[in-house]
Every structure is written in C-alpha cells, then in structure tokens.
C-alpha cells in the first residue's frame, strides 16, 4: 500500500520566502491521497536550539495552514531522517505500507535523508520534484547558480533506486492508480 510523507511543511520554513508553487502542487497531491483514502503522514522538524525558527515552543514549528488539516498522523523528528529516533517505521508496518511518496521542505536535508532512509528500509520511494523546496540558496553553499532542488533530484534519480518524477509524470503514472 502507498502512503504520502509530508516533510517539514511548517510555518517557520514556509514563511521564509514564496513557496506558493510548491504548496499548490503539494495540496493537489494531498487531495489525491485523501480522495483515495491513503495515509498521509506529516513530519515536523523540532529544533531545541534557542532562536530557531522551528523551536518546539514557537509558532514556526507548527504545521503550515496549507496542510494543517490533512494529516492522518503527525510525527515529530529532530534529525533530517524521518526514521531516526521516531516511531515512523512502526506506523508504516502497522499500515502495511510498501511505497512512500515524499513531498516537503529542506530538500537537501530532510527530504533527501528520508528518501535514502526509506529505501534502506526496503520501501519503494517516489520523490516528487515540484512538491519539494528549500530555504537555502546558492549563496548558502557558496555555489553560484546551483539549483539545490534540481541537484538533489538528479542525485536521487541517478542512484537508480529512488524514483524521481515531476508532477506531469505523477499525474500520468499514479493519479488514476491511487
């Protein structure tokens, strides 16, 4: 069975810049999973560092209103991987999940680490390109001109173990099959 992981779509991340395009695609995919009555699991990154946008007690750690009411389950995490020191695996086993679709934020950390961790645990993984984003820029990494989302998507695609598709491909291959 399939499940959707919605990674770190939190106020503290979404409010940093214009993510309207990514949120629009995310909401469409979420609606598809809801209509098919497939599980939607939201992951929240919690950072206990003082002043963090995702500090446990801050408004920034809350799920963004665009996806707030979609979750069948919300799991908090403190590392880039949604599997490390969480009960995500237990929930996925209980639901008999074998295929994970990933959308969300912090492409080069939480999305990528979760995709790799899911693959390592035997799940089929589909990474949805237009439904990911990052707060970081080419300046963050001192790599002028790099498109972080595209770069990470290409790395995962080239691995030949994680399916990376755009929204059009998702619609053609999966929407009717959900």
From TrEMBL:
Family: Belongs to the isochorismatase family.
Keywords tagged on the record: Hydrolase
Pfam entry (one): Isochorismatase
Name of the protein in question: Nicotinamidase-related amidase
Domain Isochorismatase-like: 3-139
């Amino acid at each position: 069975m399939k499940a959707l992981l919605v990674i770190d779509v939190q106020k503290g991340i979404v409010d940093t810049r214009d993510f309207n395009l990514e949120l629009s695609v995310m909401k469409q995919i979420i609606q598809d999973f809801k209509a098919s009555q497939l599980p939607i699991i939201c992951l929240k990154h919690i950072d206990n560092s003082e002043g963090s946008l995702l500090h446990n007690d801050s408004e920034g750690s809350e799920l963004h209103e665009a996806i707030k009411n979609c979750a069948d389950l919300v799991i908090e995490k403190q590392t880039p991987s949604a599997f490390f020191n969480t009960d995500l695996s237990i929930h996925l086993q209980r639901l008999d999940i074998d295929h994970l679709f990933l959308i969300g934020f912090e492409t080069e950390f939480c999305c990528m680490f979760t995709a790799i961790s899911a693959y390592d645990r035997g799940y089929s993984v589909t990474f949805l390109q237009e439904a990911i984003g990052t707060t970081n820029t080419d300046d963050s990494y001192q790599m002028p001109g790099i498109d972080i989302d595209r770069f990470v998507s290409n790395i995962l695609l080239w691995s030949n173990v994680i399916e990376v598709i755009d929204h059009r491909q998702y619609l053609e291959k999966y929407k009717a099959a959900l």
